[in-house]
Amino acid sequence: VAPVDVVEADEAAASAVAVDAVAAESERSIDVDPTASMREDLGYLASEELRGRSVEDDSIDVAADYIASRMSEIGLDTTAVAGSPLQPFDVVLGARPAEADRNRLVLTTTGDDRESVLDLGSAFTPLAVGSPSGEVSGPMVFAGYGITAPKLDYDDYEKVDASGAIVIVLRKEPQLNDPESRFQGARNTQHAFFSTKISNAIKHGASAVILVNDPQSVEQAIENVRGKITREEQRRRKLNRQLADLPQEAENSRKKLNESLKRIDQSITSLGQELKQAERGLLGISEAGRKGEGTPSIPVVSVARDVVDQWLQRFTERTLEQTEQAIDESGSPRSSPLEGAIASIQIELEPLKTETSNVMGVLAGKGELADQTVVIGAHYDHVGMGGVGSLAPGTIAVHNGADDNASGTTALLGAAERLSRRLASRESHRRVLFIAFTGEERGLLGSRHYVRNPRFPLDSTVAMVNLDMVGRLRDNELTIYGTGSSVSFDALVDRINQEQSEPFRLFKVASGYGPSDHQSFYESGVPVLFFFTGLHSDYHRPSDDFDKIEFGGLSRITDIVSDVAFELAIRQERPEYAETDKRVRIRRQLTAFLGVSLSNRQDHVTISGVVDGGPAQQAGIEPGDRLEKLGDQRVRTAYEVIEWVRSRSPGDRATASVRRGGRSIELTVELAKRPE
Questions:
Q1: By percentage, how much of the chain surpasses pLDDT 90?
Q2: What integer pLDDT is reported at residue 194 of this predicted model?
Q3: Contact at 8 Å (CB) between 146 and 197?
Q4: The whole model's pTM is what?
Q5: Which of 115, 466, 567, 668 has its CA 20 to 30 A from that of 355?
Q6: Element (H or E) spanning 219, and its range?
Q7: Omega before 200 within 30 of 0, i.e. cis
């Protein structure tokens, strides 16, 4: 049963063109199994071996080599960049400390000439959430959790003077996991955020912040690093078995395996150092985030728990653990100055960079259109083992990115195969440039690099077609962004959709903007089309796996993309660029279930049926009710109901206002998971 079954014509139904038409198969070769090569390509790109294709990991280079090889097999020219398919550039991954003599933390005591110097990387680490450089000195103040919360009657700064001081601040909040806490117990409030603590320290005049990790986070960090080491050791054993099984003459394979083993050994050595830091409670340099552009900042460092414990015992006669326990038990601050203690902090961070590459394959143009270009693009990077970009906080596991965006990369290769065949017999057509972008997950870095360094002039690039998350077709709904980026695009996609053997229910968005690689081209004056099957609950999580890809739909989307690109490559007229609205909302798939059938009336919506046992029936909604509001949103059409449900998740609760028998009734609805 569909989440919303519209029994009378509505706006959603009107957007689904139901025209019986068959594409011109004479121009499209049909494979025995049109999805066979797609399954192979996507299966490899989303495999455990590629570890989520992060730009931080050497697996991104393995993926690039695979894509380049496939482009060459298809017959594309892979020598576009100085004889190579790769367009390399540097990506800033974060920050790292400069030399040790420019990153120092020294503790002295009034009346004592001796200095206690902390070791960089083992006893303290500068953090990117603070100033990237600076040198300060001042008295030390223990400021508890660094929280000022008048509404909760709690203030760590109430009885201490932090002006000019270097404040020691505990991570998170008092009474963590305590359901009786004045905070939220198991859930963090805004007072637990690193940025809130730093901002509050600045408001109280602090010159620097020393962050102290909490025991629970320390245990989790240790577990995560040990898990990484275990996985690397498993990889090493697997590669050693492959190496032992290689025939003696397989020199190239042996060389590649040995190179991979060397990188694994380096990784394990690095993880060993990371484990030592985790055991002492040190935060990673970017673990607390980065300083926001334009925000006030002061130096921020992480100091090992055992070091802070020694300081507190020396200057307050309480251990770190005793202090944390006293705050938790009393629910009151235990802030105090460290009388006589003076700290000097010097930090300097520099960018941490890595090289990554866009991958290009060219189908040369012919005839009078040969010097113009159509770009078809899809990003091939993803979020690796988690961390930056992951929506599964704290999870260290392969984020395979089958839909995001192995699906788009696979469709890119499929479109290259189809267009190579279809354009072979044409006497005149534009050049088609296929680009697998890297760094999209870091902020469209690959596409931005290309438009700043185009292989073919942008002023002769007539259109860009983008494929991102096209592997989870559901309800036959295909979203196309950019239909207003050229005056001709709306009619073009409608016509080509009607020519498909099974037309899609198109949801068209005029804007050429949006958080994917087409935006880089559109901002550079190139009309764009972006094909997309919608966000889903596996987005940027380890569960975005191969077995959830709908290959029949992926093949059909590759067909319509190929047909659109074919038209753009051969039509005489160049698409005319048009301005569009910058405000874009990314469309989600329907994951929640309301369980109603709806009828549109002149100015309102009526419930024509409810699903037995469904959320609507359980809430008390009945056939014949006039649906007036869902939450704060007034509804007048069934389409508005569909989009309201689309924007929510299973388990969400809302008030449904219905009119029954001349009176208004408010009912509480809890949405369920949509039936498969």
A1: 68
A2: 94
A3: yes
A4: 0.76
A5: 466
A6: helix 215-245
A7: no
Cβ 540 vs Cβ 615: under 8 Å: no
Check whether 13 has a pLDDT greater than 50.
no
Query: Within a 10 A sphere around the Cβ of 583, how many other Cβ atoms?
Result: 7
Q: Are 24 and 540 in contact (CB under 8 A)?
A: no
| Amino acid letter, residue 249 | E
Task: Give bridge partners of residue 486 from the DSSP assignment.
Answer: 577
pLDDT in tens, 522-550: 999 999 999 999 988 899 999 999 999 99
Q: What is the pLDDT of residues 46-55, one digit of tens each?
A: 998 899 999 9
- Cβ–Cβ < 8 Å for 440, 404: no
Q: Are 401 and 52 in contact (CB under 8 A)?
A: yes
Residue 355 CB coordination number (10 Å): 13
Please name every residue paired with 6 in a beta bridge, in sequence order, or none if there are none. Answer: 598
* Phi/psi of residue 450, nearest 5 degrees: -65, -45
**pLDDT value at 504 more than 70:** yes
Of the candidates 551, 563, 571, the residue with the CA atom closest to the CA atom of residue 419: 563
Q: What is the chain's alpha carbon radius of gyration, rounded to the nearest angstrom?
A: 29
Name the nearest CA neighbour of 482 among 553, 531, 433, 430.
531
- The span from the CA of 49 to the CA of 245, in Å, is 18
pLDDT of residue 22: 31
Three-class DSSP category at 638: helix
Give which of 180, 619, 597, 133 is closest to 347, Cα–Cα: 133
Beta bridge partners of 660: 663
**353 HSE (CA, 13 A, CB side):** 7
What the block records as the tokens of 44 is 């490899």
Closest CA to 380 of 457, 322, 295, 437: 437
Q: Are 299 and 103 in contact (CB under 8 A)?
A: no
Residue 380 contacts residue 67 (beta carbons within 8 Å): yes
More confident residue, 503 or 224: 503
**337/94: higher pLDDT:** 337
Is the pLDDT score of 274 beyond 60?
A: yes
Residue predicted with more confidence, 603 or 214: 214
Encoded tokens for 78: 């892979």
The strand pair at 626-630 and 605-610 is best described as antiparallel
